[in-house]
Amino acid sequence: MTAPAPMEALLVEHLPDEPGWQYEPKWDGFRCIAVRVGAHVEMWSKSGKPLGRYFPEVVAMLGRLAGDRVALDGELVIEVDEGLSFDALQMRLHPAESRVRKLAAETPATLLVFDLLELNGEDLKDRPLQQRRSALERFMAQQDEPALLLSPATTIRGAALDWLGRSGGALDGVIGKRLTDSYRSGERAMIKVKQHRTADCVVGGFRTGKASADMASLLLGLYDETGKLNHVGFCSSFSAADKRAWTPELQALIEPPGFTGAKPGGPSRWNRGQESEWLPLRPAIVVEVLYDQVTSDRFRHGTRLLRRRPDKAPEQCGMDQLRHPLTPSELKQLLGR
Q1: Per residue in 134-144, pLDDT tens?
Q2: What is the extent of the structural domain holding 17?
Q3: Tens digit of pLDDT for each residue in 38-74?
Q4: Residue 145, domain CATH
Q5: Among candidate residues 334, 298, 283, the one with its CA nearest the CA of residue 149
Q6: In terms of domains, do 296 and 180 share one?
Q7: What span, in angstroms and rounded, lies between the C-alpha atoms of 43 and 49?
Q8: Which is higher by pLDDT, 61 or 86?
Q9: Are residues 161 and 236 in the same domain?
């Protein structure tokens, strides 16, 4: 089977304030196109890479579904005691089959389904979303698999704004789709809105460029309840002129240890396991940054500098600024469980 290209979303600032739209939570998981033909099941990521070997329990579940042929669009998530865990998903991408099967038993994944592309040989992609959603709801009503859940949808903008306000943990924002649109594979035919938040962070270190002694990125830290400064992310959205302007001030503050808790370097999703040198700073500079997502008390992506905060003491910059999870009870309410 060939991996179908998923319909994608264009990032916009606001949800449309007009009728004719369906809104869905944008889950913080792995996008997954799943196809079952008879007893054969294939799963692909958004980039077209096979996912089945990493989620054998989901493959087995899909093989038990009613119907001879079905194609679903959804999101793979893993629920732990604290809610949904993106880290648990990443741990599945392991080369050892024994490790994958152990994790599949310990932290099984769930497929949250939001679109039905084909059913029993009938291609539904050319049908409008409103019809596809009705067909999906009927299909899901026939299933009895706890690991297969129907992702919520609403045409009420106020409900979507409520989801957006709770995003930043298990939710990555809100998706908007026109009710009259077909499924346009490979096109940015949906919209997505993300909730960006700000945090006041201590500059605990910096990295220089490969061919220059100028600052390349600021390393950001927050204090935990024990008073330790933990590395939580970075900011690198600077022009060449700004990097040159920052460098003398940073050089004057170089002083170990910089971060006294979690430190930069070592394996991470940022450096792909490569150790990267950094220079520690005396905690004296506070900056306000814009971020979108937090995983394991660290910014998932790079942040954007908004302003410096000379009015704020470094000790006032705490980890509590990052606590925006979707609680287990909120998750159950959202999924109607």
Answers
A1: 999 999 999 99
A2: 8-195
A3: 989 999 999 899 999 999 999 999 999 987 899 999 9
A4: 3.30.470.30
A5: 334
A6: no
A7: 8
A8: 61
A9: no
Helix, coil or strand: residue 141: helix
Residue of 26, 177, 192, 194 marked active site: 26
What are the C-alpha distances in Å from 178 to residues 11, 127, 184, 224, 321?
15, 12, 12, 44, 35
Helix, strand, coil percentages in the chain from 3-state DSSP, rounded to 5: 25, 35, 40
Residue 71 maps to a domain: yes
Per-residue pLDDT tens for 152-201? 999 999 999 988 887 766 688 899 999 999 999 999 999 999 877 899 99
Claim to verify: residue 112 and residue 27 sit in the same structural domain: yes
Any catalytic annotation for residue 312? no
- Residues 228, 157 within the same domain: no
Task: Express as a percent the part of the chain with pLDDT over 90.
Answer: 74
The DSSP code for 269 is: T
Q: Nearest Cα to 64, choosing from 140, 137, 144?
A: 144
Tally of structural domains, the chain:
2
3-state secondary structure of 98: helix
Domain boundary among 195, 224, 254: 195
**Who contacts 159 (Cβ-Cβ below 8 Å, separation ≥6)?**
23
Lowest-confidence range among 214-223, 303-312, 316-325?
Answer: 316-325
Judge if 241 and 140 occupy the same domain.
Answer: no
pLDDT of residue 203: 98
Which residues partner with 10 through β-bridges? 191
Same domain, yes or no: 298 and 158: no
Do 295 and 322 form a contact (C-beta atoms < 8 A)?
Answer: no
26, 174 Cβ separation under 8 angstroms: yes
CA distance 153 to 131: 13
Question: Vertex 90, ends 88 and 96: CA angle to 5°?
Answer: 100
